[in-house]
Amino acid sequence: MKFLVTGGTGFIGARVVANLWERKIPVIAADLNLNIEWTKDIAILKHQNDPSKIAEIQQQIDKTLFINLDVSDKLQVKEVFDQFPDITHVIHLAYLMSAEVEADQHRGVSVNMLGMINIFDMSVQHNLSRVVFASSETIYGANHSAYGDENYAVKEQDYCSLDDHFYTYGVMKMLNEFTAQKYVKNKGVSIAAMRPPIVYGDGRMRGSVLWACEFATNPALGKKVNLPFSKEARDCWIYVDDAAEQFVRLSLKPKLNHFAYNNGGHSVTAEELMQTVQNIVPDAQFEFDESVPRTSLVDRCDSSRLEEEIDFVPRSLEEGIRAQIEEARSRQKQINY
């Protein structure tokens, strides 16, 4: 067994790679802009008080190949698989986020559409055991009102018309899923899509939702945070390490019962979110922007399908936020030291 993780040193990708190191599963981490030291730091920081565990993780790091890869380049992708014919699984996370897509539609299509097709083609040509890729809750559109009851948690079979979409990114994810199912049906390959909500944690460095890091990391470091929406804005949140665990478990399960899975998460208002932060950091300073009533995302996602499939329930919101705060502080101590 050998995994290829594209976007492997990114926000979620680095956590997936660290998760595979914990399991002692061989991995190739591929990224257009490699951030190798960051990825290593994530794995080691978690075990900073356990030298024997750090030694085990270091052994896995030493065996790992980090490669530059532009997934939009068909020849580059082919060369990776030709060079490493023992790749059995792919977790595909190389993607341009919504703001980057809107800024450069041509590049967005190249990476987000052609890049996905290049990976699907490799799944056929190299008979991969599984490809799992990151779809998104944005395929459900920009407003929960499209689903009627505000307390309704969207399910995988729910459909959103193009009229209710806001992000080009989300429509791209819809086409990714449509295309993947064509490959599954016509080529007999094993591909699954995961639909994460807002993924929070320390270390998010790009994209239009940097506040999904800053909301807890800033207070952890004694800094104020400004959230660009109302305190009444409701969203669904999942901790980054839990999302990584879901990706790995779904990849490893021999047979899947479905194609698409909601990652789930905790549905809270921005005010409830920051109250949770304040329970851990009493002097946390924050402001909301009441001129923006809500984010352009659905409010609740049902995760029962995935929980049943992989036998895993994400940690509580407070546990996730506490983990983020502790990591941010530990990293700051390292920098200061």
UniProtKB/TrEMBL annotation:
<keyword id="KW-0521">NADP</keyword>
<dbReference type="InterPro" id="IPR001509">
    <property type="entry name" value="Epimerase_deHydtase"/>
</dbReference>
<feature type="domain" description="NAD-dependent epimerase/dehydratase">
    <location>
        <begin position="4"/>
        <end position="254"/>
    </location>
</feature>
<keyword id="KW-0119">Carbohydrate metabolism</keyword>
<dbReference type="InterPro" id="IPR036291">
    <property type="entry name" value="NAD(P)-bd_dom_sf"/>
</dbReference>
<dbReference type="Pfam" id="PF01370">
    <property type="entry name" value="Epimerase"/>
</dbReference>
<protein>
    <submittedName>
        <fullName>NAD-dependent epimerase/dehydratase family protein</fullName>
    </submittedName>
</protein>
